[in-house]
Amino acid sequence: MKCNLPELRRGKLKSLLNENKYIRVMEASNGLSGLIVERANRNGKEYDAMWVSSLCDSVLKGKPDNEVVDFSSRVKTIEEILEVTSKPIIVDGDTGGQVEHFVHHVRTLERMGVSAIIIEDKKGLKQNSLFGNGTEQILEDKLTFANKITRGKEALQTEEFLIFARIESFIADKSVEEALDRAETYVDAGADGIMIHSYKSDGEEITSFLTRFKKDYPDVIVIVIPTTYSKFTETQLSDLGANVIIYANHLLRSAYPAMLRTAEKILEDECCEEASNEYCLSMEEILQVIRG
Ligand code: SPV
Ligand code: MG
C-alpha cells in the first residue's frame, strides 16, 4: 500500500480536482470494500477516491439511514478505511448536525486525513433521499445552512479539506430555479462546490441544473450521484459539467444478494460443499485479500 499518512492523503482530492476534468469515486464502507476500491483496475482505469456513504454505513449496521448511526460510529468506520487504503476520502456528512457540533466534526475529519465532507440542506429527521414519494423531505432555511458551511470553513486548519454543499431541492420536489438560488447562496457562503441530487431516472433535473449552473459558475466543482439516472455515462455527465461522479452504494448492493444466495443455498442443501464451490472464494484467495 502507498503511504497513507494524514498530511499526505488529505490534499490529494484537491490536486485531483485541479488536474482532471472529472474524477470517479466509489463507495467504501469498511476495510474490505476500501481494499476493493483501492485495488480495482480495469484496462488501466481506477477509482480516484472513496465515498463513505451514510446509507451504506447504516445498512451495514442494520439501521435506518436517518442519522441514528452517530458521528462517533461513523468515525470508527472511516478509521477502518483510512487504516488500509491510501486514496482520498469524501465523507457523507448527512445534514452536518448542529452547527456547534459541525465545527468540531470537520476538524476531527481534517486531522484524520479525510479530504472532504458533503453536507445536505435538509432538516428534521433526515431520511434517505431516494426513499421515494411519500417520505417528507424538509429543506433547511438556505441562510441557516449557508452559515453552517461558513462556520465549518472557518474552523478548518488547512486549505486542503473541502466542504461541499448538497442541494436537496429536487428531492423535495422544488424547481431548478430554487436549486440554482441555493447553489449561489452556498457558493457565496464559502462552499468548495455543490452536490446536486435527484430521485428521478430521466436525469432531466440534473441536466438542466448542470447546464444552467455551469454557465454562470464554470469553475465551481459540481458533484453528482447517478444512482437513479444510471444510464448516463461518465463522459455524458462530464460533458454536462460534472466534476465528481460518485457511485454511492454499488459494492454493498452487489454484496447483499451474493451473501443471501450463499446463506439460502446452504439452508437448501444442509451442506456447504456446493455453495463453497459455486459461490465462494477459496480460503487461499480470501487470505490473499488480507495479505500483509
Ligand atoms: C448516501 O450514499 O448515503 C447518500 C446518497 O447520501 S443517497 O443514498 O442517494 O442519498
Ligand atoms: Mg447519505
Automatic annotation (TrEMBL):
Output the InterPro entries linked to this UniProt entry: ICL/PEPM, PEnolPyrv_PMutase_core, Pyrv/PenolPyrv_kinase-like_dom, Pyrv_kinase-like_dom_sf
Kindly report, in one word, the top-level EC class recorded for this enzyme. isomerase
Entry keywords, A to Z: Isomerase, Pyruvate
- What are its E.C. numbers? 5.4.2.9
Q: Record keywords: Aminoacyl-tRNA synthetase included?
A: no
GO molecular-function annotation terms?
A: phosphoenolpyruvate mutase activity
Similarity comment text for this entry: Belongs to the isocitrate lyase/PEP mutase superfamily. PEP mutase family.
Would you tell me the protein name for this molecule?
phosphoenolpyruvate mutase
Q: Which organism is it from?
A: Anaerosporobacter mobilis DSM 15930
